[in-house]
Specification:
Blueprint lengths: L1 H14 L4 E11 L3 E10 L4 E4 L6 H17 L6 H19 L4 H24 L1 H4 L10 E4 L1 H29 L5
Antiparallel strand pairs: 1-2, 1-4, 2-3
C-alpha cells in the first residue's frame, strides 16, 4: 500500500513542473495610464507570462505584455520545475520496482535520497523566488512570491520523504523478522 502512495505522490511531484512556480508583481508608471499593475508568472519550464490588466485597448495591452515578457525572458529565468519532473519520474520508477518486489530496499533508498534532494530544492527556491527569475535588475522593487507548483512540489517532496523513510523502516523490519516455514 505504501508503494502505491509513493508512486502516486511521485507522479504528482512530476506534474508540478507544468504549473506556475513563481510570481512577481510591481507598479509601473505609464504616461497615458498613470500607474499600472504588472504581474508576471514563471512556469516550471521557465516560460514567462505577463498580465497588465489596466490597459483597456487589447492591441496596446498585448504590446505592453509582450514587451514586459520579452524583458523578463532576456534576464534568462531558470526552469525550476525540470528537477521536480526528473526526480518525480525517478521516484515513480523506483516505487514501481518496489511494487514489483524487485530491489525493494534499494528502491526505497533511491526514493529517500531523491525526496531529500527535491525537498532541499523546493525550500531553496521558496527562500529565493527572485533567483528563479535570475535576479532581474529592472524589477528590484517587485514583490516576489512562490507559485502553486513550487508549493505543491515542496509539500510532495516532504510527503515522499516521510513515506520513503517509513517504507525503509518497514522493509528492514520485515527483513529482520523470523520467517515462518
Amino acid at each position: 500500500m505504501i508503494g502505491v502512495a509513493i508512486f502516486a505522490v511521485a507522479l504528482c511531484l512530476a506534474l508540478t513542473s507544468f504549473a506556475e512556480w513563481g510570481r512577481l508583481s510591481y507598479a509601473a508608471s505609464d504616461g497615458g495610464y498613470g500607474s499600472l499593475k504588472v504581474s508576471a508568472t514563471l512556469s516550471g519550464f521557465g516560460g514567462v507570462s505577463v498580465d497588465v490588466p489596466g490597459i483597456k485597448d487589447s492591441t496596446e495591452r498585448g504590446f505592453v505584455e509582450h514587451r514586459e515578457a520579452s524583458a523578463l525572458e532576456a534576464e534568462g529565468p531558470n526552469a525550476p520545475g525540470v528537477a521536480a519532473l526528473a526526480l518525480g519520474l525517478l521516484m515513480a520508477g523506483s516505487a514501481w520496482l518496489f511494487l514489483q518486489n524487485r530491489h525493494r530496499l534499494r528502491a526505497m533508498i533511491v526514493i529517500v535520497v531523491a525526496a531529500a534532494t527535491s525537498l532541499i530544492n523546493g525550500l531553496w527556491r521558496m527562500v529565493d523566488v527572485r533567483g528563479m527569475f535570475n535576479d532581474p535588475a529592472d524589477w528590484s522593487t517587485a514583490h516576489y512570491s512562490a507559485g502553486f507548483g513550487l508549493v505543491a512540489a515542496t509539500v510532495a517532496a516532504f510527503a515522499l520523504m516521510g513515506l520513503g523513510i517509513t517504507a525503509v523502516v518497514l522493509e528492514r523490519r520485515s527483513d529482520s523478522s523470523p520467517r515462518a516455514e
